Predict the structure of ABC transporter ATP-binding protein.
Amino acid sequence: MSVAAPAAVDTRPAGIRFDQVSVAYGKHTVLDGLDLTVEPGELMALLGPSGSGKTTALRAVAGFVRPVSGRVFLGDRDVTALPPHRRGIGMVVQGYALFPHMRVADNVAFGLKARKSPRREIAERVAEALEMTGMAAYARRYPRELSGGQQQRVAIARALAIRPSVLLLDEPLSALDARLRSGMLAELARLHRELPDVSILYVTHDQIEALTLADRIAVMDHARLQDCGTPQELYRRPRTAFTASFVGNANLLPVTLGEEGPDGTVGAALGATRLRVHGGGAPASPGATATLCVRPHLVGLGPGPNTLRGTVAEVQWRGATHRLLVDIAGIRLKADVRELRTPPALGAEVELHFAAEDAVLLPATAAPEAVPGGGGHG
Ligand SMILES: Nc1ncnc2c1ncn2[C@@H]1O[C@H](COP(=O)(O)OP(=O)(O)OP(=O)(O)O)[C@@H](O)[C@H]1O
Ligand SMILES: [Mg+2]
Protein backbone atom coordinates (compact mmCIF):
# COMPACT_ATOMS: atom_id res chain seq x y z
CA MET A 1 0.00 0.00 0.00
CA SER A 2 1.31 3.42 -0.88
CA VAL A 3 1.79 6.07 1.77
CA ALA A 4 -0.52 9.05 1.35
CA ALA A 5 1.44 11.94 -0.10
CA PRO A 6 1.24 15.18 1.88
CA ALA A 7 -1.47 17.36 0.39
CA ALA A 8 0.12 19.39 -2.38
CA VAL A 9 -0.19 23.08 -1.60
CA ASP A 10 0.03 25.47 -4.46
CA THR A 11 2.06 28.49 -3.36
CA ARG A 12 2.11 30.36 -6.66
CA PRO A 13 0.53 33.82 -6.44
CA ALA A 14 -3.18 33.23 -6.87
CA GLY A 15 -6.15 35.52 -6.87
CA ILE A 16 -9.60 34.58 -5.65
CA ARG A 17 -12.59 34.51 -7.97
CA PHE A 18 -16.23 34.11 -6.99
CA ASP A 19 -18.25 33.16 -10.04
CA GLN A 20 -21.97 33.60 -9.31
CA VAL A 21 -21.59 31.99 -5.89
CA SER A 22 -24.80 31.42 -3.93
CA VAL A 23 -25.07 29.88 -0.47
CA ALA A 24 -28.33 28.95 1.22
CA TYR A 25 -29.32 27.51 4.57
CA GLY A 26 -32.58 25.71 3.95
CA LYS A 27 -34.74 28.14 1.98
CA HIS A 28 -32.79 31.14 3.21
CA THR A 29 -30.29 32.52 0.65
CA VAL A 30 -27.46 34.16 2.61
CA LEU A 31 -25.14 34.75 -0.35
CA ASP A 32 -26.81 35.64 -3.60
CA GLY A 33 -24.91 35.24 -6.87
CA LEU A 34 -21.63 36.78 -5.72
CA ASP A 35 -19.34 37.81 -8.57
CA LEU A 36 -16.05 39.15 -7.27
CA THR A 37 -12.37 38.90 -8.18
CA VAL A 38 -9.48 39.50 -5.80
CA GLU A 39 -6.34 40.03 -7.88
CA PRO A 40 -3.12 38.20 -6.91
CA GLY A 41 -1.49 40.13 -4.08
CA GLU A 42 -4.49 42.37 -3.56
CA LEU A 43 -6.10 43.12 -0.19
CA MET A 44 -9.86 43.22 -0.66
CA ALA A 45 -12.01 44.28 2.27
CA LEU A 46 -15.51 42.86 2.54
CA LEU A 47 -17.50 45.56 4.28
CA GLY A 48 -21.13 45.35 5.30
CA PRO A 49 -23.58 45.27 8.17
CA SER A 50 -24.07 42.28 10.46
CA GLY A 51 -25.71 39.35 8.70
CA SER A 52 -24.94 40.60 5.18
CA GLY A 53 -23.03 37.42 4.26
CA LYS A 54 -19.38 38.41 4.76
CA THR A 55 -18.33 35.40 6.84
CA THR A 56 -20.31 33.14 4.55
CA ALA A 57 -18.35 34.43 1.54
CA LEU A 58 -15.09 33.71 3.38
CA ARG A 59 -16.22 30.24 4.37
CA ALA A 60 -17.07 29.52 0.75
CA VAL A 61 -13.45 30.32 -0.21
CA ALA A 62 -12.07 28.24 2.66
CA GLY A 63 -14.32 25.32 1.79
CA PHE A 64 -16.36 25.22 5.01
CA VAL A 65 -19.62 25.86 3.19
CA ARG A 66 -20.61 24.39 -0.13
CA PRO A 67 -22.28 26.81 -2.56
CA VAL A 68 -25.68 25.73 -3.91
CA SER A 69 -24.56 27.20 -7.22
CA GLY A 70 -21.58 28.97 -8.72
CA ARG A 71 -17.86 28.26 -8.55
CA VAL A 72 -14.88 29.39 -6.49
CA PHE A 73 -11.46 29.72 -8.16
CA LEU A 74 -8.03 30.18 -6.63
CA GLY A 75 -5.87 31.34 -9.48
CA ASP A 76 -6.93 29.11 -12.36
CA ARG A 77 -7.90 26.21 -10.08
CA ASP A 78 -11.59 25.50 -9.60
CA VAL A 79 -11.64 24.58 -5.89
CA THR A 80 -15.41 24.44 -5.46
CA ALA A 81 -15.37 20.70 -4.70
CA LEU A 82 -12.01 20.61 -2.91
CA PRO A 83 -11.93 19.96 0.88
CA PRO A 84 -10.57 22.84 3.02
CA HIS A 85 -7.16 21.28 3.76
CA ARG A 86 -6.42 20.87 0.05
CA ARG A 87 -6.90 24.58 -0.73
CA GLY A 88 -3.69 25.93 0.79
CA ILE A 89 -5.47 28.78 2.51
CA GLY A 90 -4.54 30.56 5.74
CA MET A 91 -7.52 31.68 7.77
CA VAL A 92 -8.06 33.68 10.92
CA VAL A 93 -11.62 33.21 12.14
CA GLN A 94 -13.77 35.58 14.18
CA GLY A 95 -12.50 35.12 17.77
CA TYR A 96 -9.12 33.50 16.86
CA ALA A 97 -9.91 29.91 18.05
CA LEU A 98 -6.41 29.09 19.35
CA PHE A 99 -6.00 25.64 20.91
CA PRO A 100 -5.89 26.40 24.66
CA HIS A 101 -3.92 23.28 25.63
CA MET A 102 -1.13 23.94 23.09
CA ARG A 103 1.80 26.29 23.46
CA VAL A 104 2.11 29.17 21.01
CA ALA A 105 4.68 27.33 18.88
CA ASP A 106 2.46 24.24 18.63
CA ASN A 107 -0.53 26.36 17.72
CA VAL A 108 1.47 27.92 14.90
CA ALA A 109 2.83 24.52 13.82
CA PHE A 110 -0.64 23.00 13.63
CA GLY A 111 -1.30 23.41 9.91
CA LEU A 112 2.19 22.22 9.01
CA LYS A 113 1.90 19.10 11.17
CA ALA A 114 -1.49 18.34 9.65
CA ARG A 115 0.26 18.46 6.27
CA LYS A 116 2.99 16.16 7.61
CA SER A 117 5.72 18.66 6.71
CA PRO A 118 9.27 17.57 7.65
CA ARG A 119 10.20 18.47 11.22
CA ARG A 120 13.00 20.85 10.25
CA GLU A 121 10.76 22.73 7.88
CA ILE A 122 8.11 23.05 10.61
CA ALA A 123 10.65 24.58 13.01
CA GLU A 124 11.81 27.04 10.34
CA ARG A 125 8.35 28.12 9.29
CA VAL A 126 7.12 28.50 12.87
CA ALA A 127 10.12 30.68 13.73
CA GLU A 128 9.57 32.74 10.60
CA ALA A 129 5.85 33.28 11.26
CA LEU A 130 6.43 34.21 14.91
CA GLU A 131 9.19 36.60 13.87
CA MET A 132 6.93 38.23 11.31
CA THR A 133 4.17 38.85 13.85
CA GLY A 134 6.54 39.97 16.63
CA MET A 135 5.79 36.93 18.80
CA ALA A 136 9.15 35.10 18.75
CA ALA A 137 9.64 35.65 22.49
CA TYR A 138 6.34 33.99 23.36
CA ALA A 139 6.76 30.61 21.66
CA ARG A 140 6.62 28.62 24.93
CA ARG A 141 3.56 30.33 26.40
CA TYR A 142 0.00 29.08 26.44
CA PRO A 143 -2.78 31.21 24.90
CA ARG A 144 -4.24 31.96 28.39
CA GLU A 145 -0.90 33.62 29.25
CA LEU A 146 -1.27 36.15 26.42
CA SER A 147 -3.15 39.42 26.00
CA GLY A 148 -5.88 39.74 23.38
CA GLY A 149 -3.53 41.49 20.95
CA GLN A 150 -0.87 38.79 21.40
CA GLN A 151 -3.41 36.00 20.82
CA GLN A 152 -4.41 37.86 17.70
CA ARG A 153 -0.82 37.82 16.46
CA VAL A 154 -0.53 34.10 17.16
CA ALA A 155 -3.68 33.45 15.16
CA ILE A 156 -2.16 35.38 12.24
CA ALA A 157 1.17 33.57 12.64
CA ARG A 158 -0.68 30.25 12.52
CA ALA A 159 -2.40 31.27 9.30
CA LEU A 160 0.90 32.47 7.74
CA ALA A 161 2.98 29.42 8.74
CA ILE A 162 1.78 27.33 5.81
CA ARG A 163 2.89 30.16 3.49
CA PRO A 164 -0.53 30.44 1.94
CA SER A 165 -1.11 32.23 -1.33
CA VAL A 166 -4.53 33.21 0.01
CA LEU A 167 -5.16 34.64 3.45
CA LEU A 168 -8.67 35.02 4.87
CA LEU A 169 -9.15 37.32 7.86
CA ASP A 170 -12.55 37.52 9.54
CA GLU A 171 -12.92 40.60 11.77
CA PRO A 172 -9.36 40.05 13.06
CA LEU A 173 -9.35 43.17 15.20
CA SER A 174 -12.91 43.23 16.53
CA ALA A 175 -11.98 41.79 19.95
CA LEU A 176 -9.27 44.40 20.59
CA ASP A 177 -9.66 47.74 22.32
CA ALA A 178 -9.36 50.93 20.28
CA ARG A 179 -5.65 51.59 20.93
CA LEU A 180 -4.50 48.05 20.25
CA ARG A 181 -6.64 48.04 17.15
CA SER A 182 -4.92 51.04 15.60
CA GLY A 183 -1.51 49.48 16.38
CA MET A 184 -2.52 46.17 14.79
CA LEU A 185 -3.89 48.05 11.78
CA ALA A 186 -0.38 49.35 11.09
CA GLU A 187 1.03 45.83 11.60
CA LEU A 188 -1.41 44.36 9.10
CA ALA A 189 -0.52 47.07 6.59
CA ARG A 190 3.15 46.12 7.03
CA LEU A 191 2.40 42.39 6.59
CA HIS A 192 0.49 43.17 3.41
CA ARG A 193 3.53 45.06 2.08
CA GLU A 194 5.92 42.27 3.10
CA LEU A 195 3.77 39.58 1.46
CA PRO A 196 3.19 41.02 -2.01
CA ASP A 197 2.14 37.64 -3.44
CA VAL A 198 -0.51 36.85 -0.86
CA SER A 199 -4.10 37.68 -1.79
CA ILE A 200 -6.07 38.76 1.24
CA LEU A 201 -9.80 38.82 1.80
CA TYR A 202 -10.44 40.89 4.90
CA VAL A 203 -13.87 40.90 6.49
CA THR A 204 -14.82 43.84 8.63
CA HIS A 205 -17.73 46.06 9.47
CA ASP A 206 -15.36 48.84 10.47
CA GLN A 207 -15.10 51.39 7.67
CA ILE A 208 -11.86 52.86 9.05
CA GLU A 209 -10.16 49.46 8.80
CA ALA A 210 -11.45 49.06 5.27
CA LEU A 211 -10.42 52.57 4.18
CA THR A 212 -6.97 52.24 5.77
CA LEU A 213 -5.95 48.77 4.65
CA ALA A 214 -7.77 47.81 1.51
CA ASP A 215 -6.62 48.11 -2.08
CA ARG A 216 -10.31 47.73 -2.93
CA ILE A 217 -13.50 47.44 -0.91
CA ALA A 218 -16.46 45.22 -1.71
CA VAL A 219 -19.62 46.48 -0.04
CA MET A 220 -22.19 43.83 0.92
CA ASP A 221 -25.79 44.18 2.03
CA HIS A 222 -28.59 41.63 2.26
CA ALA A 223 -26.55 38.74 0.83
CA ARG A 224 -25.55 40.76 -2.23
CA LEU A 225 -22.56 42.68 -3.49
CA GLN A 226 -23.68 46.32 -3.64
CA ASP A 227 -20.54 48.04 -4.83
CA CYS A 228 -16.83 47.51 -5.35
CA GLY A 229 -14.01 49.96 -5.87
CA THR A 230 -10.93 51.57 -4.38
CA PRO A 231 -11.46 53.31 -1.04
CA GLN A 232 -11.06 56.69 -2.78
CA GLU A 233 -13.61 55.86 -5.48
CA LEU A 234 -16.21 54.68 -3.00
CA TYR A 235 -15.60 57.59 -0.68
CA ARG A 236 -15.41 60.40 -3.23
CA ARG A 237 -17.74 59.06 -5.92
CA PRO A 238 -20.12 56.56 -4.31
CA ARG A 239 -22.69 55.15 -6.72
CA THR A 240 -25.45 54.46 -4.22
CA ALA A 241 -26.74 56.02 -1.02
CA PHE A 242 -25.98 52.76 0.79
CA THR A 243 -22.30 52.89 -0.17
CA ALA A 244 -22.14 56.59 0.68
CA SER A 245 -23.50 56.01 4.17
CA PHE A 246 -21.47 52.86 4.83
CA VAL A 247 -18.10 54.03 3.52
CA GLY A 248 -17.56 57.17 5.56
CA ASN A 249 -20.07 59.58 7.01
CA ALA A 250 -22.54 61.20 4.66
CA ASN A 251 -25.33 63.75 4.48
CA LEU A 252 -27.99 62.36 2.16
CA LEU A 253 -30.46 65.01 1.05
CA PRO A 254 -33.61 64.33 -1.00
CA VAL A 255 -33.62 66.80 -3.89
CA THR A 256 -35.58 67.50 -7.05
CA LEU A 257 -33.39 67.99 -10.09
CA GLY A 258 -33.51 71.10 -12.28
CA GLU A 259 -31.94 72.14 -15.56
CA GLU A 260 -28.30 71.58 -16.49
CA GLY A 261 -26.43 74.87 -16.78
CA PRO A 262 -23.81 75.89 -19.38
CA ASP A 263 -21.09 75.32 -16.72
CA GLY A 264 -22.08 71.66 -16.40
CA THR A 265 -23.75 72.05 -13.03
CA VAL A 266 -27.26 70.79 -12.36
CA GLY A 267 -29.96 72.51 -10.37
CA ALA A 268 -31.12 70.63 -7.25
CA ALA A 269 -33.94 71.89 -5.05
CA LEU A 270 -34.00 70.95 -1.39
CA GLY A 271 -37.40 72.19 -0.32
CA ALA A 272 -37.36 75.89 -1.19
CA THR A 273 -33.55 76.05 -1.30
CA ARG A 274 -32.01 76.07 -4.75
CA LEU A 275 -28.60 74.42 -5.06
CA ARG A 276 -26.23 73.85 -7.96
CA VAL A 277 -23.99 70.78 -8.03
CA HIS A 278 -21.89 68.84 -10.49
CA GLY A 279 -23.95 66.12 -12.08
CA GLY A 280 -21.15 63.58 -12.31
CA GLY A 281 -22.01 62.49 -15.83
CA ALA A 282 -25.45 61.02 -15.14
CA PRO A 283 -28.03 62.49 -17.51
CA ALA A 284 -30.18 64.83 -15.47
CA SER A 285 -33.89 64.77 -16.10
CA PRO A 286 -35.48 67.94 -14.70
CA GLY A 287 -38.19 67.16 -12.17
CA ALA A 288 -36.73 63.78 -11.20
CA THR A 289 -35.93 63.09 -7.56
CA ALA A 290 -32.38 62.26 -6.49
CA THR A 291 -30.25 61.98 -3.39
CA LEU A 292 -27.54 64.57 -2.92
CA CYS A 293 -24.54 63.32 -0.94
CA VAL A 294 -22.13 65.70 0.74
CA ARG A 295 -19.56 64.64 3.36
CA PRO A 296 -19.80 66.47 6.72
CA HIS A 297 -16.20 67.74 6.57
CA LEU A 298 -16.94 69.43 3.24
CA VAL A 299 -19.75 71.49 4.72
CA GLY A 300 -18.59 74.93 5.91
CA LEU A 301 -20.13 77.37 8.34
CA GLY A 302 -21.31 80.70 6.92
CA PRO A 303 -22.56 81.72 3.48
CA GLY A 304 -20.94 80.35 0.32
CA PRO A 305 -21.66 78.89 -3.12
CA ASN A 306 -24.55 76.65 -2.00
CA THR A 307 -26.01 78.27 1.08
CA LEU A 308 -28.41 76.46 3.38
CA ARG A 309 -30.16 78.15 6.30
CA GLY A 310 -31.18 76.20 9.38
CA THR A 311 -31.41 75.93 13.14
CA VAL A 312 -28.66 74.47 15.34
CA ALA A 313 -30.01 71.33 17.00
CA GLU A 314 -26.80 70.05 18.58
CA VAL A 315 -23.16 71.06 18.99
CA GLN A 316 -20.56 68.36 19.71
CA TRP A 317 -17.01 69.30 20.60
CA ARG A 318 -14.58 66.67 19.29
CA GLY A 319 -11.27 68.24 20.14
CA ALA A 320 -9.89 69.35 16.78
CA THR A 321 -13.36 69.80 15.30
CA HIS A 322 -16.90 70.75 16.17
CA ARG A 323 -19.76 68.73 14.76
CA LEU A 324 -22.83 70.85 14.21
CA LEU A 325 -26.21 69.22 13.68
CA VAL A 326 -28.41 71.69 11.87
CA ASP A 327 -32.10 71.26 11.02
CA ILE A 328 -32.88 72.37 7.47
CA ALA A 329 -36.30 71.84 5.91
CA GLY A 330 -36.99 68.84 8.15
CA ILE A 331 -33.58 67.29 7.55
CA ARG A 332 -30.72 67.13 10.02
CA LEU A 333 -27.43 68.10 8.35
CA LYS A 334 -24.03 67.22 9.83
CA ALA A 335 -21.17 69.69 9.47
CA ASP A 336 -17.67 68.96 10.80
CA VAL A 337 -15.83 72.27 11.08
CA ARG A 338 -12.52 73.26 12.63
CA GLU A 339 -12.81 73.85 16.35
CA LEU A 340 -14.76 77.07 16.90
CA ARG A 341 -13.77 79.61 19.56
CA THR A 342 -17.40 80.56 20.00
CA PRO A 343 -19.65 77.77 18.78
CA PRO A 344 -23.22 78.77 17.90
CA ALA A 345 -25.86 78.38 20.60
CA LEU A 346 -28.55 75.74 20.38
CA GLY A 347 -31.52 77.10 18.46
CA ALA A 348 -29.42 79.75 16.70
CA GLU A 349 -30.05 80.41 13.00
CA VAL A 350 -26.93 79.58 10.96
CA GLU A 351 -25.86 79.38 7.34
CA LEU A 352 -23.96 76.41 5.94
CA HIS A 353 -22.45 75.98 2.50
CA PHE A 354 -20.65 73.50 0.27
CA ALA A 355 -18.93 73.66 -3.11
CA ALA A 356 -20.68 72.35 -6.23
CA GLU A 357 -17.84 69.87 -6.87
CA ASP A 358 -18.02 68.43 -3.35
CA ALA A 359 -21.51 67.03 -3.81
CA VAL A 360 -22.45 63.81 -5.57
CA LEU A 361 -25.87 63.10 -7.05
CA LEU A 362 -27.13 59.57 -6.42
CA PRO A 363 -30.25 57.69 -7.40
CA ALA A 364 -33.14 58.57 -5.08
CA THR A 365 -33.06 56.18 -2.13
CA ALA A 366 -36.73 55.24 -2.05
CA ALA A 367 -37.25 55.08 -5.82
CA PRO A 368 -37.91 51.65 -7.36
CA GLU A 369 -35.00 50.15 -9.29
CA ALA A 370 -34.87 50.85 -13.00
CA VAL A 371 -35.75 47.94 -15.23
CA PRO A 372 -32.60 46.85 -17.11
CA GLY A 373 -32.85 47.33 -20.85
CA GLY A 374 -35.82 49.65 -20.47
CA GLY A 375 -38.05 46.61 -20.69
CA GLY A 376 -41.43 48.02 -19.69
CA HIS A 377 -44.51 47.36 -21.79
CA GLY A 378 -46.74 50.42 -22.07
N1 LIG B 1 -24.82 27.69 9.89
C1 LIG B 1 -25.83 28.52 9.62
N2 LIG B 1 -27.11 28.09 9.57
C2 LIG B 1 -28.12 28.93 9.25
N3 LIG B 1 -27.97 30.25 8.99
C3 LIG B 1 -26.72 30.73 9.01
C4 LIG B 1 -25.58 29.92 9.32
N4 LIG B 1 -24.47 30.70 9.27
C5 LIG B 1 -24.90 31.94 8.94
N5 LIG B 1 -26.24 31.96 8.77
C6 LIG B 1 -27.05 33.14 8.40
O1 LIG B 1 -26.50 33.69 7.22
C7 LIG B 1 -26.57 35.10 7.21
C8 LIG B 1 -25.21 35.67 6.91
O2 LIG B 1 -24.33 35.32 7.97
P1 LIG B 1 -22.80 35.75 7.98
O3 LIG B 1 -22.19 35.08 9.15
O4 LIG B 1 -22.22 35.50 6.65
O5 LIG B 1 -22.93 37.33 8.23
P2 LIG B 1 -21.77 38.41 8.46
O6 LIG B 1 -21.91 39.41 7.37
O7 LIG B 1 -20.47 37.73 8.62
O8 LIG B 1 -22.25 39.09 9.84
P3 LIG B 1 -21.37 39.57 11.12
O9 LIG B 1 -20.87 40.94 10.76
O10 LIG B 1 -22.41 39.63 12.21
O11 LIG B 1 -20.30 38.57 11.39
C9 LIG B 1 -27.14 35.49 8.57
O12 LIG B 1 -28.50 35.80 8.41
C10 LIG B 1 -26.95 34.26 9.40
O13 LIG B 1 -27.95 34.17 10.39
MG1 LIG C 1 -19.20 37.49 10.25
About this structure: The longest strand covers residues 306-317.
